[in-house]
Amino acid sequence: MSAQITQQMQASGVAKVLVFLKPHATTSASTARASIESHFTRSELSQTTALAASLGVKPSTVPTMRYYPNLGVALGTVDRSGLAALKADQAVEKVSGAPSIRLIRPVEILAANLTTPVTWGIEALEIPKLWKQGLTGKGIIIGHLDTGVDGDHATLKNAVVDFTEFDLLGKEITPKPKAHDSDDHGTHTAATIVGRAVQGKAVGVAPEADLVSALVIEGGDVVARVLGGMNWAIGKGIRILNMSLGFPGYWDDFLQLTKIVRARGVLPVFAVGNEYAGTSRSPGNYAQALSVGAFNEQGEVADFSSSQIFKRKKDPIVPDLVAPGDNIISAKPGSGYQAMRGTSMATPHIAGLAALLWQAKPTATVNQIEKAIYASCTLPKGMSDLRANRGIPNAPKALAAL
Amino acid sequence: MSKKTAKVKTDPELLRQIDSVVASDEPIQAVFTLALPIKQLLNPRTVEESAKKLVEKVANEVGESPQEMNVFENLGTFVVSANASFIRQMLTQSGISAAMANKQPVGSIKLKTA
Description:
The structure holds two protein chains of two kinds.
Chain A: H1 3-12, E1 14-21, H2 29-37, H3 47-54, E2 65-68, E3 73-79, H4 80-88, E4 92-97, E5 108-112, H5 120-124, H6 127-131, E6 141-146, E7 160-165, H7 185-194, E8 210-215, H8 223-235, E9 240-243, E10 245-248, H9 255-263, E11 267-271, E12 281-282, E13 290-295, E14 308-309, E15 317-318, E16 321-324, E17 328-331, E18 337-341, H10 343-360, H11 366-375, H12 385-388, H13 395-401
Parallel strand pairs in A: 6-8, 6-9, 7-8, 9-11, 11-13, 13-16
Antiparallel strand pairs in A: 1-3, 1-4, 2-3, 5-18, 10-12, 14-15, 17-18
Helix pairs in contact in A: 7-10, 11-13
Chain B: E1 9-10, H1 12-20, E2 28-34, H2 38-41, H3 44-62, E3 68-72, E4 77-82, H4 84-90, E5 96-101, E6 112-113
Parallel strand pairs in B: 1-5
Antiparallel strand pairs in B: 2-4, 2-5, 3-4
Helix pairs in contact in B: 3-4
């Protein structure tokens, strides 16, 4: 039994596991799934159950496991008897501790209705002033690497121009899947970037930009899937890459990749993390990234927004700036909207802003767009530069600085 | 495998996976970054050819090809699924600047949505 499973079992009597099904088992996916599903438990200690409880969702409706048919893996929580049953199950090839890349939900998720024409975040950055000048992101392609996206949502109709998923070695799966979300995080961030107005209400910063979206987080911590997504998105001619995800801490493994992304004329817009002050995530904490923290409706840096100082000459403080990231209403898979908090929610605001600027000046370089955004920032009185760095960007000022 | 014998910047998790392989043919998945000037890394064809050449060279040296390979031609990196001896030999190549394990466990680095 792996050390991770042992530790979790000793601590709580349950463990989160990743189950690899035997190849022949995946040809009758429903049978394999049914076989193993009964071994999983709906543990009160699981994150999914806790989150469901916080949202008032009845425990009986919380799935015991998440199954990824394209990968032949299942993720869920087991107790000791469930673990033994999985290991004995003929459909199972291997059981391991739940890998590190798994969806960690935003700080909070709440049901929400959009009652104003635009979200407070769009208003705070004065985005509508650029819309009035005809700047909507039209002609700009943005890369979105996340949990996927519900391409059928009303606010995302015709916005997602391409979608794909990757196998464990970063190869596109075939047949090409329909745009879907393995969770709800990706739909939310996507709609903040490019959401179209629905019945006079808008959640998207760049409502006429195009999104190419890749599902890179599901069922396991696999680096190649993220690389596959980055590689694919670059090949699609993106100008901006939005990654509302990262590795807690500083890991330079993606540093060269980020440099390559920039060298290819793509602005890397990455979330800085949600682990409070004194922390950050890679690749958001690279000097080569435009790293985004979060502020709230009161104009304060959100308490969860990561920030950190590095011993380097260029961009020692991360994030580079803060954007609206608290109580952000955006699309919910299926239909409707929900509010989320996180630097994941802040990052798409900046990705969308960059799209508006690039529409205004298509010949601008990555450095010019980034500098214009930085030049537009204001650090409000009382907001610490150690938490917010340059502060809050402003769309009209960024356009003027371009 | 000791860190001293690795000639490229190597993710400790990859070294651990190499050392912990029980059966010699149990595959390990590793992501490699090519040691090329940035201008060459921006050329997808160069990246593709360089990666394949390196893999072929190592295959000849160890007498075995990787089970699978995928080149990220726009990123200057590639991933292979191969046995431990192949991966070890890859780590000695001057054409590689860095290597990391493709599969990362809980407790090491954790890719998370924010």
